[in-house]
Design brief:
Arc Repressor Mutant, subunit A, 12 helices, 3 domains, alpha/beta, D-Maltodextrin-Binding Protein, domain 2, 9-stranded mixed sheet, elongated
């Protein structure tokens, strides 16, 4: 029987079996989660292995784990399962209005998201939106596993050449240094990096893009990067701290300007680096009208940033 015909005989629970084996580390654990008997789970595994023509799990002293081929198969199946779950969610309420699972880095929730919603709502074409805010790494991982439909974010360099992603450049985003309005540096012009290094800082954790950029900026000025007095991932939290202390922080310029009145952008002798914002979806995603609609709206918004 041809491979596609064998696959057509599989059911959704067959596809979920591999995911549950990966999560539980055993066939019995997967059976329990799927509410089937152990023999039933064994038969399901045999059927999916027969359909794909290869072994998908390896037995271990603790139970079972996916083989290399099984892990690769699960990566593809997660996209299908994610699309299926999205279809169920979209049709469970207001089926006439499409649902889009949109991921974005948090700063865009105070800048691009209101502009996007306003533009689409004004034209009467706003879809239902399920917004997910997370780090770049988590957003792109969720997109590739089918848990998100599209993402608006900066992008790790290694993902830009991935053949299964459709990537559209949007605009350049600039970082800024924030201080309280009463801070000694708030009204100075062309503040040098040496002076900034003398103050306490509230910074993102190590590995966050903002932390990486500010550290590189100080190093390029021939200085040691500041050691944070406070670490907080959320720029909302850092800017709130800055507004009532003598600390400084780094945040996207759009966020600093959003909080104008409670914080001020420090005028710098050397400009902060810029980062590109992209719209990312899977190749098949651009074929959905609601995804194409969001992409086009973001392009219009991007023209105002350039």
């Amino acid at each position: 029987m041809p491979l596609r015909n064998r696959i057509d005989r599989l059911r959704i629970r067959h596809l979920r079996l591999l995911e549950q084996i990966a999560q539980t580390g055993s066939l019995s654990g997967a059976a329990q989660r799927l509410a089937v008997s152990q023999p039933g789970a064994t038969k399901m595994l045999q059927e999916i292995e027969a359909a794909l023509g290869t072994h998908l799990i390896e037995r271990t002293s603790r139970g079972a784990r996916l083989s290399v081929v099984g892990s690769a198969a699960l990566g593809r199946l997660r996209i299908a399962l994610g699309a299926l779950d999205a279809t169920v969610d979209a049709l469970s309420a207001q089926p006439e209005i499409p649902l889009v699972r949109l991921g974005m880095i948090p700063v865009l929730a105070v800048s691009a998201l209101p502009a996007l919603a306003g533009l689409l709502d004004g034209s009467g074409r706003l879809p239902r939106l399920e917004i997910h805010e997370a780090t770049v790494e988590r957003l792109t991982g969720s997109l590739r596993e089918g848990q998100l439909d599209c993402v608006v974010s900066t992008l790790d360099a290694q993902l830009k050449g991935m053949a299964d992603l459709h990537i559209t450049p949007l605009w350049e985003a600039t970082l800024a240094i924030a201080a309280a309005p009463t801070h000694p540096l708030a009204r100075k012009r062309k503040v040098p990096a040496q002076l900034l290094a003398q103050f306490r800082w509230a910074l993102p954790p190590v590995g966050a893009s903002g932390r990486t950029h500010i550290e590189r900026w100080f190093i390029e000025a021939g200085l040691n990067p500041p050691q944070p007095f406070v670490e907080a991932h959320s720029f909302h939290t850092r800017l709130a701290l800055v507004s009532s202390t003598a600390m400084l922080s780094v945040a996207p310029q759009a966020a600093v300007r959003h909080y104008a009145g409670t914080v001020r952008e420090v005028s710098l002798e050397r400009p902060m680096p810029k980062g590109s914002i992209f719209f990312v979806t899977r190749k098949e995603g651009v074929q959905l009208p609601e995804i194409a609609l969001i992409q086009e709206a973001l392009r219009k918004i991007a023209s105002k940033y350039s």
